[in-house]
Amino acid sequence: MARAARKLAPPRRSETSIHMEIEKFLRVAWPSHLPYSHFPAGERRDARTGGKLKRMGLKPGWPDFQFSLPGGRMAFIELKTPIGEPSDEQIEVRLKLIAQGHGYAVCRSLDDVDATLARWLAKFGLTLRGRIAA
Predict the structure, then answer these.
(1) H or E element that contains 92
(2) Each residue's pLDDT tens digit, 106-117
(3) Cβ(107)–Cβ(8) under 8 Å?
(4) CA–CA dist 1, 35 (Å, integer)
(5) H helices present in 1-134, as ranges
(6) Pairwise CA distance, residues 36 & 5, whole Å
(7) pLDDT-derived band of residue 17, with 50, 70 and 90 as boundaries?
(8) Is the C-alpha dihedral spanning 45, 46, 49, 51 positive or negative?
(9) Distances from the Cα of 117 to the Cαs of 73, 74, 108, 122, in angstroms?
């Protein structure tokens, strides 16, 4: 009897590799007159650096990317791997930002980010400068 072919799971990607892919996309696609930034708060650090950042005002739960939108609005993206879940602090920050009228999304892939940004910009009659090829 023949052995059944084993289906291999695709390798898991790190959040860091997803962040870098998103940044590469944003440099090409995001409207150049609107500022954005990545907020590097989630990386592992030694206790000394972590303590210093906390004393400087680093708060847990802050989203990974921030986007300036027209009219003084802001939007935020929290990146997660396909199996990652937001922490309690991230959920709390999300609720506060949404209550202030800001855009907020949890994205798990470049496709998610592309669709989210396109939707946010469309509310202001804007488009991304480039899109992901279908």
Answers:
(1) helix 88-99
(2) 999 999 999 999
(3) no
(4) 61
(5) 15-29, 47-55, 88-99, 110-122
(6) 46
(7) confident
(8) positive
(9) 13, 12, 13, 8
Instruction: Specify the pTM.
Output: 0.82
Per the CB < 8 A criterion, the answer to whether 39 and 31 are in contact is: no
CATH number of 15-122: 3.40.1350.10
Structure tokens at 55: 């004393």
The position carrying tokens 């990545």 is 38
Look-up of token digits 């400068």: 129
| Measured CA distances, 31 to 72, 112, 121 (Å) | 15, 18, 9
Beta strand pairing status for 36-38 and 65-69? antiparallel
Pull the structure tokens for residue 102.
């800001």
